[in-house]
Amino acid sequence: MTEAHVIELHRVAKHFGKVEAVRDVSLSAGAGECVALVGHNGAGKTTLMKLMLGLLHPSRGDVRVLGHDPCAGAFAVRRRIGFLPETIAFNPALTATEMLRFYATLKREPRSVVAPLLARVGLAAAADRRIGTYSKGMRQRLGLAQALLGEPALLFLDEPTTGLDPALRGQFYGLIRDLAGAGATVLISTHALGELEGVADRVVILDRGEVLADGSLGELRRLAHLPIRVRVKVAGPHAAAPAWLRDAGQAVNGHHFDLTCTPDTKMALLRRAVESGSAVDDIEVAEPTLDDLYAHFLSRGDAR
Q1: What is the pLDDT of residues 174-191, one digit of tens each?
Q2: Which InterPro entries match (predicted)?
């Protein structure tokens, strides 16, 4: 493993009988990087996480986490890792405080960290309630608290925002940005693609155990070369709009024209709109979303 990489996988495969859950995957992640694994059910996301956690042995290839083979189970490495599984179950008879103290003992963390952690995930007021009375969202936040024990250098989050309302999702991703900003490496597996913009530094798109694309949103947009949607609002009626705009755009809603362009021609189009002066009131640019990119790379994978 190179010094800059917290995670490094080289040509990793995992077979379950005749089923190839992961096929020839190579990827890496550095300190302070937030990487998202996206793909439909069965794409290999959870299997990859379990390989990196040492819960599964690879059928082929090499996995290194924090410089070590995760299957070796070294405690010094494991205590630097936090994990929130997709489905988490706690003893319903225990309180959140009691449960988190139990996990703190396993990680050899002092009990004094429990109360601040519960406050950090918004459970301070419910710290002494039995977990059996918790809503799904509250149990999810408790799961995040146990994953954050010990200020992990590496955090694995499998479908972490399940059961959280929009406000709590925003708080959750704020925590993730803070952790990455402090140097932690964060690996997120999720179906909620729209939540990742502004959070993930890189997106790894998986399909049938293979990596279809790996890069920042900007890099994926350049690779996909999908059309960019531009809406131009004009000051007067459509008939009074500049001739180039009437020729190039589709008139909608009385004072708007919708156009599309490529990444290479976007700036030329915007300059032309600005040069139209008072004839143009406003310009809205809609880059391809992660949902658009995911659909594009998935269809390209299906065509192979």
Answers
A1: 888 888 999 999 999 987
A2: AAA+_ATPase, ABC_transporter-like_ATP-bd, ABC_transporter-like_CS, P-loop_NTPase
